[in-house]
Design a protein that fits this description.
The protein is of the alpha/beta class. Helix content is 33%, strand content 18%. It has one domain: Ureohydrolase domain (Arginase, Chain A). It contains eight helices and ten strands. Strand 7, helix 5 and strand 8 form a beta-alpha-beta unit.
Length: 291
């Protein structure tokens, strides 16, 4: 694991010394509306130099933490199975080395690759999903691997009652019926999140954030925008509560499609969220502050 030539701001430490490993999964072959999420991780890395390493909210600085940026994986764009296998293999190495993977998408299907590695190493894994879409279709136009089916495939791995969905405001009727019987789904916002965090005490938790959970007025740079979403501060608060209250074993940010927001605000919003999450992970979880 050599250091990437261009790293996320303040995350240029060596692999061996870093408990957190960032990597990009630039893949969007199954997007159902507007492609472009494959450019999310690369753009975030390049634009990260427009923000500060210091967080006034936390009074912490990324330069004080040990975080490794492994760059973007080289994924087979035309084969979802091969791409997922490469993601799983990388995540498995990170986990086997006792480190926490922080993945940048890419479309939401890439989450499945990391979850495959997580379930092999963590019994009773719980997954918390922040998203505009349920992503619970069994197939999309005949394809069982799609960003529209990713959480159904995650459910296949972790079983009933272990998937917690928040912010959901779009999906087929059958997806909501499936959720009522098999997952914990909260529509539109983060109501009930603190109760879930309490109930998951001690269990391994993976947090996946589809950035389209935010309202498109605040975050237009995504492939499938849905009106009626949460604000940046609401999302930040929810992510911090999960990180501080749970035994985190991994997380991701997916579905930034920067080309649909020429202002660059969506990328900078994702970057500030990532900075705060990294600092919370470093100071509250990996140092034992929340457990």
């Amino acid at each position: 694991m050599d250091r990437n030539v261009e790293t996320f701001l303040g995350c240029d430490n060596s692999y061996d010394e870093s408990p957190i490993v960032i990597f990009g999964a630039p893949f969007d072959s199954t997007t159902s509306y507007r492609a472009g999420a494959r450019f999310g991780s690369r753009t975030m890395r390049a634009e990260s130099y427009e923000i500060e390493t210091y967080s006034p909210m936390l009074d912490r600085d990324l330069e004080d933490e040990k975080i490794f940026d492994g760059g973007d994986l080289e994924l087979c764009f035309g084969d979802s199975q091969l791409a997922l296998r490469d993601i799983e293999d990388f995540a498995a190495r990170v986990l086997d080395d006792g480190k926490l993977p922080f993945m940048l998408g890419g479309e939401h299907l890439v989450t499945l690759g990391v979850i495959r590695a997580e379930v092999e190493r963590h019994e009773n894994l719980a997954v918390i999903q922040f998203d505009a879409h349920a992503d619970l279709r069994d197939d999309y136009l005949g394809a069982r691997l799609s960003h529209a089916t990713v959480m159904r495939r995650v459910h296949d791995l972790i079983g009933d009652g272990n998937l917690y969905q928040f912010g959901i405001r779009s999906g087929e009727r059958t997806e909501f019926k499936f959720a009522a019987a098999h997952t914990h789904l909260n529509k539109f916002n983060f109501d009930g999140l603190d109760d879930v965090i309490g109930a998951l005490s001690g269990r391994p938790v993976y947090l996946t954030i589809d950035l389209d959970v935010m309202d498109p007025s605040a975050f237009p740079g995504t492939g499938t925008p849905e009106a009626g979403g949460v604000s940046y501060l609401e999302l930040l608060s929810a992510a911090k509560r999960v990180i501080n209250g749970c035994r985190m074993v991994g997380c991701d940010l997916v579905e930034l499609a920067p080309n649909y927001d020429p202002s660059g605000i969506s990328t900078l919003t994702a970057l500030k969220l990532m900075r705060e999450m990294l600092l919370e992970l470093s100071t509250n979880h990996l140092t034992g502050g929340s457990q």
